[in-house]
Design goal:
Length: 590
C-alpha cells in the first residue's frame, strides 16, 4: 500500500465521509479510516512509452497476482486436514509405516468428518446456514487441485463400513464434497477461511470440535491402532524437538490458502502440548468416533509393560537384573493381561492405560521394594556395596545406589538446563506472519521483514545464530555404554548385595514397604490422590522428578500411577485400612 500515490484521489468515502486513501496491492483505493475498499483503481497516466507486449505481460502478471491474493475458497476442516497430512508425513520419516497415513489416520479423519456432519453426508453443516452449492460428482469445479491425498478413496476397515451402513445418508464411496461459495463469503474481511467466524462461535452439544491439540490425539490413536514403537510421551517430545509440525503448523498450508482474522485463534498455538491434556482428548475423540476395541497389546508388543520397563531401565542406567523384578510386579499386579492393556473406547467401562507412565511407575515400585527409599536404608546398602567393590575390584560390581544417584543427578541437571535454554530461545513467531484482515497484509509482511533483518544484523554483531540446531530423532534421551569413561554405566552391575537366597529363590533383604498413598480420593474428585513433596523422602522425590522429566509429565501424575499399582499389588493392606476406618466410624456413632 502506498499512501503518497493515493493522495491525488480526493473523493469522500461513501461510508465515513473521510478523505484519507491508500492503495491495496491490487491497485484499488481503500479508506484508511474505515477500511472500505472502492471499485476505483489507480490509472496509468502515460502508456505511450510502454510497448504493447510489456502491457500484456504486466496484465498477465496482475491476473496471477490477483488470483493469488484472492486465494482458494477453503473451510476450517480443510486446514486441519493439511495439518494431519503434514504430521502423518513427519511420522513416516520417523520410521512409521505408510499404512498409518493411507489407511488408519485416513479412516479416523473420514469418520470424524462424517460424525461431525462436515462431509460424507447429504447435508453438511456448511449448507445449513449459508447459500452454497455442493458439487459432489463434478471434480472439474474444484479449486482443490493440490488437495493432500489423506482423503483419497482407499479401502476402509470393517468398523468404518459398519458405521456407514448404520447411517443411510452417508456416501462412503464419494470423495470430499466440493463446495462452491458465493463471492461475498470469499471476500470476507473477518477470516481467510469461509467459515472461520462461524467455526469459532460454534458450540454444538455432542460434537467434539476440532482443534490443533486434537490433531495429536488423532496421531496417537493411529499409532496405538498400529501398535507402533512410539508412546505418547515420545510423540510430544518429537513435537517439542520440531520433528512433527504443531507450533505454527499453518505455515505449511499452500500459499493459496489465505489465513487471517479469526483463523489466527483457530490455528495459532502458543503453548507446548501437555501429556494429560492430549491423553484426555485422545479418549474424547475415540469415544466420539465410536471406535471399536483396538488390536490386542500382547507380550511381544512394544507397549507391553515388560518391554517398556526394559527400555526405561536402560535409559535411566539401572541394572539389567532389575528387569526380572519388574516382570514379577507386572504379573502380581495383573497389569500385563491383554484385556487390561487393550484400549476399548466403546466398552461399558472404557479401559485406558498410560503405557509409558505405567511402566515407569512399576520401576519406582521395584526401587521401593529394593531400597525402601526412606533416606536411610538406601544409603546403608550403598555403604555395603561400596566396601565390597573396593575389596573385589575384578569381580562383578554390586549396584551402589549412592554412586548411581550422583551420576544420574549430574546428567539430568545438564539435560534439564539444555532443555530449559532451548525452550527460552524458541522462536514462537512463524515464518508466515498472521494478520487481522487482508488490508493489513502488506503492513504485517513489511514489519516481519524488518524484524528478520534486525535479527540477522544482531546475530552478526554478537557472532551467534538465533535458531537452534534440530536434534536427530531418537527414542532414547540418555545413552549409556561401558566404553564411556566419563560416566559409569550400571547396566551390568549386580543386585547381590540387595537380594538374599530363600530356598531356591531370591528375596529382597529389605522386608519393609511404605505405601505412597494411605487414602485415595472419593470417586467424585478429579484426581486419585494428592502429592506434596514435603511429605515424602528426598530419595523418592528424586526418583519421581527423574522419571517425570523423562516423560515430560507432572510429578503428581506419576505419583498417582505409583499409588494405583500399589493398590493392585497390596490389596490386603488397603482392605485392612478400610476395615479400620469403618470400625472407627462405628465407634464415633456410638
Amino acid at each position: 500500500m502506498d499512501l503518497e500515490e493515493a493522495k491525488e484521489f480526493k473523493e469522500r468515502c461513501a461510508q465515513c465521509a473521510a478523505v484519507s486513501w491508500g492503495l491495496t496491492d491490487e491497485g484499488k483505493y481503500y479508506c484508511t479510516s474505515c477500511h472500505n475498499v472502492t471499485e476505483r483503481s489507480k490509472e496509468v497516466i502515460d502508456t505511450g512509452a510502454i510497448p504493447n507486449t510489456k502491457i500484456q505481460a504486466i496484465n498477465r502478471g496482475l491476473k496471477r497476482k490477483r488470483k493469488l491474493e484472492k486465494g482458494w475458497d477453503w473451510y476450517v476442516c480443510e486446514g486441519f486436514q493439511h495439518i494431519l497430512y503434514q504430521q502423518a508425513e513427519a511420522l513416516k520419516t520417523l520410521g512409521v509405516g505408510p499404512e498409518l497415513k493411507n489407511e488408519v489416520l485416513h479412516n479416523f479423519w473420514k469418520r470424524y468428518l462424517q460424525k461431525s456432519k462436515q462431509a460424507y453426508c447429504k447435508n453438511p453443516v456448511y449448507t445449513s446456514k449459508r447459500k452454497a452449492t455442493v458439487l459432489e460428482d463434478n471434480p472439474s469445479h474444484s479449486d482443490w487441485d493440490s488437495e493432500p491425498e489423506l482423503l483419497s478413496d482407499l479401502s476402509c476397515p470393517s468398523f468404518v463400513e459398519s458405521g456407514a451402513e448404520s447411517q443411510p445418508d452417508v456416501h462412503t464411496q464419494k470423495p470430499f464434497p466440493i463446495i462452491k461459495a458465493s463471492q461475498s463469503e470469499t471476500a470476507s474481511i473477518c477470516s481467510g477461511s469461509l467459515d472461520g467466524v462461524e467455526y469459532s462461535l460454534r458450540k454444538e452439544k455432542g460434537i467434539v470440535k476440532m482443534t490443533v491439540p486434537r490433531t495429536l490425539a488423532f496421531c496417537y490413536l493411529s499409532l496405538l491402532w498400529q501398535r507402533e514403537t512410539i508412546t505418547l510421551s515420545d510423540l510430544l517430545r518429537f513435537v517439542e524437538e520440531d520433528h512433527i509440525p504443531y507450533i505454527n503448523a499453518f505455515q505449511y498450508f499452500p500459499e493459496e490458502m489465505k489465513l487471517y482474522g479469526r483463523d489466527k485463534g483457530i490455528f495459532a498455538i502458543e503453548s507446548w502440548p501437555n501429556y494429560e491434556d492430549i491423553y484426555k482428548k485422545m479418549i474424547e475423540v475415540a469415544t466420539f468416533l465410536d471406535l471399536p476395541r483396538f488390536p490386542d497389546i500382547t507380550e511381544d508388543c512394544y507397549l507391553h509393560p515388560n518391554i517398556l520397563c526394559m527400555k526405561y531401565l536402560m535409559e535411566v542406567n539401572l541394572p539389567d537384573e532389575m528387569h526380572n523384578l519388574t516382570c514379577q510386579v507386572v504379573k502380581m499386579a495383573g497389569i500385563g493381561e491383554v484385556d487390561f492393556l487393550t484400549f476399548d473406547p466403546i466398552a461399558k467401562m472404557a479401559k485406558t492405560v498410560k503405557y509409558d507412565v505405567q511402566a515407569v511407575a512399576v520401576i519406582v515400585v521395584v526401587l521401593k521394594l529394593l531400597f525402601l527409599l526412606d533416606d536411610n536404608l538406601e544409603w546403608s546398602l550403598s555403604n555395603i556395596a561400596e566396601k565390597y567393590n573396593e575389596k573385589n575390584k575384578e569381580d562383578k560390581p554390586w549396584f551402589d545406589f549412592r554412586k548411581w544417584y550422583q551420576v544420574m543427578k549430574k546428567s539430568v541437571d545438564e539435560k534439564k538446563q539444555k532443555w530449559e535454554e532451548a525452550r527460552a530461545k524458541y522462536l514462537w513467531k512463524s515464518e508466515k506472519p498472521l494478520y487481522h484482515s487482508s488490508i493489513d497484509r502488506s503492513v504485517v509482511y513489511k514489519r516481519r521483514e524488518m524484524v528478520v533483518n534486525l535479527q540477522k544484523q544482531f546475530s552478526t554483531l554478537v557472532d551467534s545464530t538465533p535458531t537452534v540446531a534440530k536434534k536427530t530423532a531418537s527414542s532414547f534421551q540418555f545413552n549409556w555404554t561401558e566404553e564411556d569413561t566419563d560416566r559409569t554405566c550400571f547396566h551390568g552391575h549386580s543386585l547381590q548385595g540387595i537380594l538374599k537366597k530363600k530356598g531356591q529363590s531370591l528375596t529382597t533383604k529389605n522386608s519393609l514397604y511404605w505405601l505412597s498413598t494411605q487414602k485415595f480420593c472419593k470417586s467424585y474428585c478429579k484426581h486419585v490422590t494428592t502429592y506434596e513433596e514435603s511429605n515424602f523422602s528426598l530419595s523418592y522425590q528424586f526418583i519421581l522428578n527423574l522419571f517425570s522429566f523423562l516423560l515430560r509429565i507432572k510429578t503428581s501424575f506419576l505419583h498417582e500411577e505409583v499409588s494405583l499399582i500399589e493398590k493392585r499389588l497390596f490389596k490386603a493392606k488397603y482392605s485392612k485400612t478400610k476395615k479400620k476406618s469403618s470400625r472407627s466410624r462405628k465407634v464415633r456413632k456410638y
